[in-house]
Amino acid sequence: MSERHSAMDRRRAREFEAFVAGAAGRLLHAATLLTTEQPGVNPQAQRLLTGALARTYADWDRLRGEDPYDRTRQELAARFARSAWRYHKVRGGVLDRLGPQERLILVLRLHEGVAEEQTAALIGLPAERVRAICARAVATLRSAPPAPPRRGRMEALS
What we know:
Elements: H1 2-35, H2 43-58, H3 68-82, H4 100-111, H5 116-123, H6 127-143, H7 153-157
Helix pairs in contact: 1-2, 1-3, 1-4, 2-3, 4-6, 5-6
């Protein structure tokens, strides 16, 4: 019996590793956009993604034909929404001028290509509200020039 469980655990681990190898880059990019960190220097985005992937792995056997990418993206969005107050610091990212809710909707709609109705259901807002927030976020990004990158104290002194 334990040999069978061991073989199933190895198969499960291989499947999950293959999924992560194919999807982690795009998911990390989405997490980086949400946290407004710089690519390559994104510890909060990495923690956010690690938590989402851990949940997906825990639920791996129960997915039953469900797309693991969608499940991980949903978990990523939910984790971001639950702790959005942590990600409202100016870091110099592309979406820095937007609030957490605007960033979440913009990333889901435009970067991930999630339908308006699915986005609304995922975050618990009416589709019309999602449409309005997305339009406002795009207008904000188009209207104001990007903020200059913040310089560290040592750079400012030199």
